[in-house]
Specification:
The chain is of the alpha/beta class. It has 2 domains: 143 residues, Nucleotidyltransferase, domain 5; 162 residues, Nucleotidyltransferase, domain 5 (2-Layer Sandwich). Helix 2 runs parallel beside helix 3, helix 5 packs parallel to helix 7 and helix 5 runs antiparallel to helix 8. The chain is globular, with a radius of gyration of 20 Å. The two termini are 26 Å apart.
Amino acid sequence: MNKTEIRILAIESSCDETAAAVVSNGQRILSNVVASQIEMHRQYGGVFPEAASRQHVLVVSSVIKEAMQKAHLNFNELDAIAVTRGPGLAGSLVVGVNAAKGLALATGKPLIGVNHLEGHIYSAWLVGKDEERKADPEFPLVALLVSGGHSEIIFMRDHLRYERLGGTLDDAAGEAFDKSARLIGLPYPGGPSIQEAAKNGDSKSFHFPKAKLDNPFDFSFSGLKTSVLRTVQGLSGEDGSELPVADLAASFQRTVAETLFGRTIEAAKTKRAKSIVVAGGVSANSDVRALFEGQRDFPVFIPALKYCTDNAAMIGAAAYQRFLKEIFEGSDFDVMPTWPLARVSLA
């Protein structure tokens, strides 16, 4: 094995994307294949778990094969197999885990389990095969992790060293986008739908609340969602005219973005962070990106749009750090209390 280059095949199947990627040294993407199920689930207004797991079964082998072909590698040239082991939909996760177990047993390669949330954070280190990277996030850092199921602010002293500063007390930001989009008549998924509608809206048309909480680094979006509902109900009963969808979308989006931005910046100042990472599906939102990229207090690292949503390259990036810690250094690492341990048994 060439120790100067560690190549990991990663598999991701936690929700409704079947993905596989080959990542070199935790950063350079040799291949990244994603089979999305968005169109299939759109008719349900959300992810239908049983249908998702069945689709994973149908395509996981071909996705892995394509990832290996695009990386121009055979399995003997890999150093490890990585897989998302949680959190996520149980039926979906088991497909990816079993595929990874089979490959690890067949090839004799180490099997590394990765937490899906940890993978999102490490998406900030990814770079395409033919792309150049100017710098990496510098520790200590504050990471804002925002997705459909999670909204958390994490402090990292070093790789794999985590301290949870705060998180959502109810709806995650992405969940609030989906639910509010439905309220104002926009299709699933709510994030892209609201962003598109907001382009033609006035973000100051409606004043939606930002929850004040005991922990300044916690989030709560249930009150915001209720405010959108009450506003829609009030507008619907006025004169029968169409809802001002664009203005509602823009105002909602601005409120969420400002909430995420303000609390993350405050956390970075409190912890004297040297950089900020913003990751997860909601990090693709234009308002969120604009606020973080527009400030000058901290260097901010946000993944390219194609790496914000679920993908396997981010799992490979996180797996690389665990590979170094467990195999070469033999040192321990922190595991968030709400995050599953990152080991997968072959039994």
